[in-house]
């Protein structure tokens, strides 16, 4: 047995849907040469990450080994795969490979950060091969919900790996290459597949996936039937959908206007990189104002209810002069991602109040998923016949279900979650190490660790309010004046009707009057006592223990 | 035309699902005698109401007219209909009417508050009639997902009103009276129905609703097939479901154990009030520990992922000594209410990590809704033939859709939302007034207004962090020592790597060194300047403007 080993280490995306980042390594133990697949983000929420702007994988493990990184490969241009590239690349400075459209999006990001565009190299699909140390990597075109999505064939001295990327079995994807059984069969015939790392998003969907092309007719019918303005939202990166929507608009003799920065940017990038041809002509928002409502269709950002996107702006009133009115139609050509329901429902109700008809995806009539369903996943297992199946791109329950399917068909399968490093060199999947990893938050303009306590404190203040007690002591540790209490996020009055801040000040005054010099001379003891009193009195008065900050100032001899 | 009028005013539940509170009045303008139907709550969330314990209707309008209130009627024992009764009754002190099971739950609540149990009067269903000033009110049994759910027939001199309550057309509801077309036909035959106030929750569900009884067989099959321990969760108040689950357990030769306070309380109340008979014997958690896993079934609280409920506790580890293990089954005999997805998914994944099989409702196989679907609503319109249809118990989009159905069938229908007072005396639905109303928060032990700014400040601190700057000035307005900055919920260091608090203190020091006596002598100006500097410097350093509290202390001549 060689002393070299083949390792796999997910740093994000395995145990969650989002923030994809996978590492492969080959070489002697702790000297493996590494490649990184994807550097994505996930999105914050008020429950767990209030005030955070973006959530990135914690790549400290990679950073400490950056001299061993041969390359970064980006499978496609979704934010959960490419979103962290601009933020984290300066820590790795490695060469990046992607297909043309993905590279175009990546370079737009690099441009914003002032990173060099030539760090990203455009690669054509298989048979073109990137040599990266001991790895030989090919991009394999797959259908998904963004142009030029790719899986990867990763050849190593220890065997061939197929990293599926995000994919669906779409034989008529409207934009891009149709799914091709033959290519997958060839990949397995050429060299046996040792391991398949496979998308697990839709493992619980038991019916066969449907093609993007099935949406054309229903969308055309819906738009033809409408009398007022039609506004449709979908993910900006779903260029095939934008095309289908725009063509349906054209069939209904409507001018198309794109609203939202991401929407215009994606269409421009898709046209520039050659993946989007024959897109119907677009009118500007200013021109749209001149078009009769019955002849206008807007395609807008904000399918997930994002507060700043075009759909939310239209739900609040005018946006670039355009406004929804009674008799208009608003279409969600999209599905709500779990967790985003409140935002989406809020928009639906705001439109309802305006008299606008809101149409959801009607159980799939106006939207199809970009991920392979269970029967489709099984078809891929059959085509590739891998020795091992390592489910990825899923929460724990998805990975477990997907592994179970593999095992039931005699494929060696294992649930491998973020931070688990496995050794694939032998005839079994062996866990070799648990890496301490987690998440990094982009907070305003700085990166902070998820465990730094910053967000924990915000959550506590958000839940419990914040009480500040200040106190001045003179040179002989005597209290000067009174303790002063300021409250934020707390009821003004307690249940007795008394003003809470005054009750707290009175109680602190009592305490300080009888406190011994030993306490008064000791900042820590004094602060602890004040904190305890504030929390206890607040509990009695308002049934809540606030966060407390104590500032003790001591005057010094001039 | 009489000078008396018949009014309807929803104070909650019309434009939302939750917090139901409806007012009817009859009499001369501004002297109408009033009845209140339901006093429910809705639940807070981190996005909009962090730290809040419960959300109650704002009843200030009612409180100001409490001498005109004849009675409060509670249609059923769900929290969104009865949950505010204990909290708000002291403000109204009116007589309360409910059916036996609802009264039992209400009295349990009253007991906790120390309110008199005899404020709640038990009423038998129609033909028993409560006379409340100009109103004659009958309880009409309907099927729902809690025992003895009722609609109301409200007779007034200006006509008959049917207030549907929450209902479904269930002809085999397992517990309680089956749906009875005849009774509804009689109600309309006896006296024409002027207005139907109607549940709108499921107006977008286009298939006919299914009976609770359809669940028995699938649940029995599922539980019979399981080898390990089976744990099922559903709403504690769904006593019929508890019975179906317990009977399925018995068929599978499993002992049943109820976990969660609400679960045990509901079953006890249902047995005590006579609505639940033949419930299989229950073992205590201590006894359950002695039962082999394959012969045990737990029925637990927490179907919505509530952090403190039994299901979440089991997902975190042991609960009362009981623990989930590999090969066990966890069943959600429930649907996730929009907005609760994150909590539910978190539990699913925690169980997945333990090797527990998680089963959701399987698209309705293991759960049916308690509300009437669209075809069922239409059947009720047809049975009652009301002159007016006023949709209630729905978000705006539900109310609008429901009104549209009524209009399409020639029924006068109007979307009436919280705070809209309508006059039903004539031949049309006339809006007579918009009442300023909103929400009241139970926060710890005190009630605060939604607009008091308390929760707004919490949200801001949660998003932006909180910076405190303190400063001491002597008798001649000279700065003593340095300004002191404390930060909470903010990154320790800015993007330059410098400690943020120190940077802020230095900048404040610079400013104070050059500030004129005019500013230093003026608390407001000084605070404003300090706040501005803190926000501006923080923006530069960390890309974020924190909330700022400034405490200026002035030493006074001894």
Automatic annotation (TrEMBL), chains A, B:
Q: Per the database record, which ranges form the Metallo-beta-lactamase domain?
A: 18-207
Keyword Chloroplast found: no
Show the GO MF annotations.
exonuclease activity; metal ion binding; RNA binding
* Entry keyword annotation includes Nuclease: yes
Q: Name one Pfam family in it.
A: RMMBL
Task: Give the UniProt keywords, A-Z.
Answer: Exonuclease, Hydrolase, Metal-binding, Nuclease, RNA-binding, Zinc
Q: Sorted alphabetically, which SMART domains does this protein's record hold? A: Lactamase_B
- Domain of life of the source: Bacteria
Stored InterPro entries: Metallo-B-lactamas, RibonucZ/Hydroxyglut_hydro, RMMBL, RNase_J_2, RNase_J_b_CASP, RNase_J_C
- Protein's UniProt name: Ribonuclease J
**What organism is the protein native to?**
Fertoeibacter niger
Q: What is the lineage of its organism?
A: Bacteria, Pseudomonadati, Pseudomonadota, Alphaproteobacteria, Rhodobacterales
